[in-house]
Amino acid sequence: GWAAVSTCDKAIPAHLLAAARLNAPVIFFPGGVMRTGPGDITIDRTAELYARMMRGQLRREEYRQQSLAAAPCPGACNFLGTAVTMQIMTEALGLALPGSACCPTTEAEPQRQIARDTGARAAELVSSGLKAGDIITAEALENALTVHAAIGGSTNAMLHLAALAGARGLEFSWERVREVNERTPWILNLRPSGEHTADLMWEAGGVPRLMREISGHLHLGARTVTGRTLGENLEALAEEGYFDEKALAIKEHGLEVADIIRPVG
Question: Residue 54: exposed, middle, or buried by beta-carbon count in 10 A (0-12, 13-18, 19+)?
């Protein structure tokens, strides 16, 4: 058995394919995301800064300072690019612990706790014999497609999920993707199509909060690395007060959960 420690665009999909092909007990530890640096600039906006510099609207030194501030610490780029999308996909597939995707890298204790829990669960997966193939099912794949539609994620994920389906011998069709997209509401207000950053999504409740909001569109009986179903995971988090705690945490940023994860209906 193994723990897949991967954070960014290509590493997560590579580990997903390895998990599918090896069909061993596996659990993912998404490395988390950067915090937003000074000036509220994220990497997706540096091209705009460069264009302004080339037009003479921004001095070269200002461009350099703002570009450096766009990536102020380790972690995935803090907007909804491929890295953040694929971190979310690991949870949507049931391969990562609930709430582990997109945890800010500067949150030392939460990161340590996720790492401890992931390692402990990896050992338990070996003992129980729960394998990647038991989790990467047709239902899990459709859950991932549904979550992707709800977040408006990177189109690169469609290549990676198609490859994952192929590695497990699961059906994948663009007709089915279209059906999922048409029925699923887009509810995540994240850059570049929205206003906020991925660290704030985690503060607002992360993937569990988003999946709870669209639970009517998901296969809640899909198995996950916790040993429970997706529905049981969401129920357990609610009983533990997870969603209430996150609703208070996001208020410290002057925001409500609905500012980032829009309610359905």
Answer: exposed
Task: State the amino acid at position 212 in one-letter form.
Answer: R
Residues 39/71, Cβ–Cβ less than 8 Å: no
The token pair at 147 is 């979550």
Q: Which residues have a Cβ under 8 Å from the Cβ of 91 and sit 6 or more positions away? A: 30, 97, 98, 99, 100, 101, 206, 207, 208, 211
Q: Do residues 114 and 70 lie in contact, with contact meaning Cβ atoms separated by under 8 Å?
A: no
Both tokens of residue 30?
């998404």
Burial of 14 from C-beta contacts in 10 A (0-12 / 13-18 / 19+) = middle
Please choose, from the candidates 237, 2, 229, the residue with its C-alpha nearest in 3D space to the C-alpha of residue 94: 229
| 160, 237 contact by CB (below 8 A) | no
Max CA separation in the chain (angstroms):
63
pTM confidence score: 0.94
Phi and psi, residue 196, nearest 5°: -105, 175
- Residue in 116, 125, 114, 160 with CA at minimum distance from that of residue 27: 125
Instruction: In whole angstroms, give the CA distance from residue 12 to residue 90.
Output: 8
Element of type H or E holding 30: strand 26-30
How do residues 224-243 score in pLDDT, each as one tens digit? Answer: 999 999 999 999 999 999 99
Report the alpha-carbon distance of residue 32 to residue 38 in Å, rounded.
19
How many whole angstroms separate alpha carbon 9 and alpha carbon 148?
15
User: Over the stretch 66-106, which tens digit does the pLDDT of each residue have?
Assistant: 888 888 899 999 999 999 999 999 999 999 999 999 999 99
For residue 80, which phi and psi values (nearest 5 degrees)?
-85, 65
A 10 A CB-CB count for 160 gives 22
Q: What 8-state DSSP symbol labels residue 79?
A: S
What is the rounded CA–CA span in Å between residue 147 and residue 142?
9
